[in-house]
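Thread: Newbie trying to understand structure tokens

Hi all, I'm a second-year student working on a class project, and my supervisor (Dr. K.) asked me to get a predicted structure for one chain before our next meeting. I've only ever worked with sequences, so writing a 3D structure as a token string is new to me. If someone could post the tokens and maybe explain what I'm looking at, I'd be very grateful. Here's the chain:
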Amino acid sequence: SLCLFGCSLLTDTSGLTRASPVDGTTALDASQDGSADSSSAPPDAALPPIAFRGAQVVSPIDGDDVTIDVPIVAPDDFLLLALYQYNAGATVTGLDAGWVLRGAIDPSGSDGNHGRHSLRIYSRRVAADDPTSYKVTVAAAASGEIVSALLAAWGNVDPRLPVDAEMLVAKDFEPFVVPSITTAAVDDLLVAVTSTTYGRGASWSAPTGMVQVASTGVLGLFSQSWPDPGATGARAYASSAQFNVGSGAAVFALRRAVR
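---
Reply by user tm_fold:
Sure, no problem. This is what the structure looks like when written as tokens:
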């Protein structure tokens, strides 16, 4: 279940740095992710499996500014930040050069106009002196701005080459599908991000084979362990939004750290 308004739930905090939650955010704990728990790795393992640290979400709010806390993290952990703006053509400011833009799309409705929104996804390698929260502006020229954000963290991801394969697509109308990618490494973790224009207060049906990690209604986050290299296959997903048009879907294969 979700812990609303400034909670932070983590199963293992040894050696990690705790962020200070802010009002309006939701913290999720590591038990809600489909990744392996590093505490279950055999003692003779070269390196532990990828471990979910936690997630923070900001449900849709009016305006174009959003402040989101960082989950409990350690240096070299992997952060994934998804940003939503109700209008298309959004620009993002407030992130430093340590953030990498992984994709930017503006899904639209079936007529190319209705259902338009902006989806921006960034990643970051955690440094010891990183802040415990980020304030980001996701602005668009149109009126009636609404923003939402989701920030998740994983440990034991390869800091030099964190993403094995990735793809980002937009779909104007149903059916919605997370695209297939082809992985090259063993013991990857598949992570999918989905978005929908009119999803305020809606729920998600997870992409086939994946588990939901976090949701803001307009944004969804899902994961699945992927032990063997190869094609991941397309995965259908759905939203309960009343007007289910305009959706974005991204999939990332996170690489397990190696010596």
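A couple of things are worth pointing out once you decode it. Residues 1-29, 36-44 have pLDDT under 50 and may be disordered. Residues 177 and 236 are 4 Å apart (CA to CA). Feel free to ask follow-ups in this thread.
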